[in-house]
Write a structure and sequence with these properties.
Strand order of the largest sheet: 11-12-9-16-19-14
Number of helices: 5
Shape: globular
CATH topology: Double-stranded beta-helix
Strand content: 35-45%
CATH class: Alpha Beta
Structural class: alpha+beta
């Protein structure tokens, strides 16, 4: 199996398979593939044994179904594009190597990769109140996997007992040795008027932390004022733009009618 990461800003993972080799990915990740690649969609992949494990995986932000892409009779390639501008990188799996990743961070992996929810009853408050899809996924198993993170990446190596407080939306990937807990933004005025939400996540070492500058939830939040509301209405920004467009169209029609 060979893999290449194509592109710069909007990257894509291209995996070359020979007969007998397979790669797995969540449902909806496929970009394009050769004729020699066969697909199998099932719940019993990525360490899952059936519906129950698939339900736990989907609770953590993954997909209920997984797809195996296999080369059976001839070599072929399958490509998985990233969802957002950012970076795709390969991480090793094996004994003592587990990771917590942001939901939607798993792009593809070898058949030995295992993906599940990192939900912990002690962190139930994190899931409910952390916001921005703070349910993390646990990635472990054997072989290696590919992860996609958005925007620019900042890596930190935390020493034993060293902590870093992070907005939940910017958590990209942390090593399994890192512990995490939900904390609140300090100061009542900061909570109410700061605009940064109520909660931060305290990450405590030892281990590596990889943070992303862009996240899908925060991007959606930034675009929300410009999205047309269902039913024909629009948000204030959209209404202003729509009014300008209607005015320009009306002026153009009036000008044309004067020429007839």
């Amino acid at each position: 199996m060979d893999a290449a990461i194509r592109g710069t800003t909007m990257q894509a993972l291209e995996v070359s398979l020979t007969p007998g080799e397979s790669v797995i990915a969540e449902a909806g990740q496929l970009g394009w593939l050769d004729d020699g690649i066969e697909l199998e969609t099932t719940t019993a992949l990525a360490g899952g044994d059936g519906v129950f494990d698939a339900a736990k995986r989907s609770f953590g932000g993954g997909t209920f179904f997984m797809t195996r892409y296999s080369s059976t009779t001839q070599p072929g390639k399958v490509t998985f594009p990233a969802r957002l501008p950012g970076q795709i990188f390969q991480i090793p799996l094996g004994p003592g190597r587990s990771y917590l990743i942001q939901r939607h961070g798993f792009l593809a992996g070898m058949t030995g990769a295992q993906l599940s929810t990192a939900f912990d009853p002690r962190h139930f408050g994190s899931a409910l109140f952390g916001g921005f899809g703070f349910l993390l996924q646990r990635l472990e198993g054997t072989g290696h996997a590919w992860v996609e993170l958005s925007g620019e990446l900042s890596e930190y190596e935390l020493a034993e007992g060293q902590s870093l407080r992070v907005h939940p939306a910017h958590i990209g990937l942390v090593e399994g040795s890192i512990s995490y807990e939900l904390t609140t933004v300090p100061g009542m005025k900061n909570k109410i008027f700061g605009g940064d939400g109520l909660f931060l996540v305290r990450l405590t070492g030892p281990g590596k932390v990889c943070l992303q500058s862009l996240s899908l939830p925060m991007l959606a939040h930034a675009l929300q004022p410009y999205i047309v509301v269902p039913g024909g209405g629009a948000t204030p920004a959209g209404a202003v733009q729509g009014g300008l467009e209607a005015g320009l169209l009306g002026a153009a029609v009036k000008g044309l009618s004067g020429l007839v």
